[in-house]
Amino acid sequence: MTDAWGTVTAVDGQYAYLRMDESGCGRCRQPGGCGGNHLGPLWCGSPRTFRVLNPDHCDVGARVQVTVAEGSLSRSVLYAYTSPLLALFAGALSGSACGGEAGAIGGAMGGLLVGWLGLRRAQRQSQHDPRLQISIRS
Known about the structure:
The chain is α+β, with helices and mostly antiparallel strands. The chain folds into 2 domains: 2-68, no CATH class; 70-131, no CATH class. The protein is built from 2 helices and 5 strands. The longest helix has 55 residues, at 72-126.
């Protein structure tokens, strides 16, 4: 499991809105940590808020531990980087074979679009999979 800490900012029925207190995994000073927690504020100036199931009925202001299933983060990153890149290369190669340089440019753009659309479709399909959802750890 990948864990981080957040604070409940609002409660809506069975859901809670969480403001994440950390912008990384929290391993910045540990061996193997990337130091991303220091870079997070540069790109995410405003606090990130997420809507998650609230099975423990935590109240507003409660500090909770948030967890994501083991491996789901690394799989998501792998797919997000490799799918569009491979689609871009495949489109450029096929476009180059059909139409030279102009075909390669068009094929690369088309491949990138196909890769992006594939990621969007995969995101929509996995959006309701409980194994991939963020949850509050008791």
